[in-house]
Amino acid sequence: MHATQRYDPDLVTAHTTAAASSIVRWVEQHHGLAVQQCHLIRRGLNDNYALRSVDGSRYVVRLYSIRPRGDFNADFELSLLAHLDAHGVAVAVPVPTAQGRTHVELRFPEGLRAMALFRHAPGAVPDTLEDFEQTGGTLARIHMTARDYAGPPSRYTLDGSHLAEQTLAYLHTHPELDLELLNTYRQLVQGLLAELAQAKGGLSRVICHGDTHGFNNHIATNADGAKSAVFFDFDDAGPGFLAYDLCVMPWSYLTRKSLKEPDELLLERWAHYIQGYRSAGGEVTPADMAALPLFVQLRHLWNMGEALGRLHHWGTSPMPVDWLRKQVDVFAAWKALDLQTP
Q: Which of 31, 92, 215, 338 has a CA between 20 and 30 Å from the CA of residue 255?
């Protein structure tokens, strides 16, 4: 009996990491590509694999992870990318299957997971001031071009519920969080949502990329030496506030550097980022700029929620109670952020 039983009957799978050999077989089966090489880049929010076909073309395969937020948003994301590419916006283009589908669904022990194939975005992450200006410019073109998008709707909207209320719900599931800290976060979320309710009527709305932290686009250089920014990873995209999509870049820098206020380098990059956005035709109103401190905080909450919603998969180490307690002071400091530009 033990020799023929494949799994322990008590095993409940939270997340399965597929071997690169499985990705090769699925891509060959569904996309008809002859694959030369494939390896795992990173597992986490999704599992991403680098793939090279026999003709030398480079691709990225995304195996979507099951997320607590709900069903995959792939129909919207991949249709949006096709729309942007058709209008000349530099994005990592999705490659349809041999049957013309945007993605396939595969049965894993934990449930159905979507898989999509993308063309590789060449280049490197932005580093120079010119790079950040290019990044802002392409983001503006994404926002402007997406106004005419008429494909499948997004399954979610990047609003207060998505950014903050879900995180509060996930905090309730943390096994080590005390009632006092939970109440502190409840008051924090309520205060931010009240501020958003008061401000949102005057704020610009766009289809957000949702994760424009500076590592989801590359700066590519063509044969003539001209640079351009190419965006990818639109799986957090959806309708939302312009101020939110803009704030993710400074939030990322502040978080990675553990800063409570911008340093000189961030301010320089931010000024070029906004300059690039405006130079490409993007409009940022005074109300949008004034709302940036609010959305930096909402972004921080959303990011916390992405980890808190995966306690069953990632465990408590990414969100220990001591760290959660320290963030209360970070939120308080960020209320006074000054990200105004000339």
A: 92
pTM, rounded to two decimals = 0.95
CB atoms within 10 A of CB 61: 26
- Burial classification of residue 70, based on how many CB atoms lie within 10 Å of its CB (0-12 exposed, 13-18 middle, 19 or more buried): exposed
Q: Is the pLDDT of residue 293 over 60?
A: yes
Domain span at residue 60 reads 20-119
Total number of domains in the chain: 2
Is residue 111 located within the same domain as residue 146? Answer: no
**How many other C-beta atoms can be found within 10 angstroms of the C-beta atom of residue 234?**
25
Amino acid (1-letter code) at residue 69: R
CB pairs under 8 A, 24+ apart, for 266-272? 268/129, 269/129, 269/132, 270/132, 270/339, 270/341, 271/341, 271/342, 272/129, 272/130, 272/132, 272/133, 272/136
Q: Tell me: the pLDDT tens digits for 176-225?
A: 999 999 999 999 999 999 999 999 999 999 999 999 999 999 999 887 88
Q: Are residues 230 and 327 in the same domain?
A: yes
pLDDT in tens, 230-253: 999 999 999 999 999 999 999 999
Last residue of a domain, one of 84, 119, 154: 119
